[in-house]
Amino acid sequence: MLFDSLTLEEVVDSESALEFMKEATKLASSADLEDLSERVSLKAECFNKYLNPTSVEELKEEQFDQIVRLIFSIGRKSKRLIAANGFENLRVRISELLHGDAPVEERFNVFVKGVEGVEEKMRINFAGELLHFSMPERYWLWTNWIWDPDNNTGALPLVVQEEVDLLGDTQGETYLRVGKAMAYVNKVGNERGYSRVGHGTYGIDVFLACVYAVYMYTVFRVKLSDEFNRILPELPELTRRVLGVQKLEL
User: Fold this and answer.
1) What DSSP element (H or E) covers 190?
2) What ranges make up the beta strands (E) of 68-130?
């Protein structure tokens, strides 16, 4: 399997990771990061409340809408998803993704291929968020801001070595590879301190959101005018937005 023969140093670019976190702490206070972590924890509580094995069988449309509003890329698309798939069909697909018997990579593939109404990247984001925030101890987050394989952009490539191959033959296999890489980054981060910025399981989420925000600031500062730079949210707000917790109404 990917990385089995590689050391932590061969997977994780720890120096880059530390530099990104140093930059992030210049743009956000420890209180900002603590608030972000708390918001992410509350988001996960909401997902678990409505999507555990018992509750998901009785999921209501208004609860589904509440969940979708906590996912950055599809936050306003719950009605479109319901119209394209039918609510009961969508509920069954979510239940199978989260609690089916098949290996997670197979469930991931079936969900991404089967859901209609939004583009593939959004379906990947949808699946990754449902898995991770329902069962954060078991599953990891994969969204296009973490890694977009079409453009090889996102937070994760910025903190792993160039030789690390994240792309699998299917979306499900890619999900496994992304998770393996994130586990390595999290392990090194816990040892060196940069992924201890969040509550337990969510440290890697908060860290990668900070990496992405710092990257966005760097790109916008170089490519855009001062007027556009003033439009870009400050780092605390930008990280809250990508993690779907800017407007937390639970």
Assistant:
1) helix 171-192
2) none
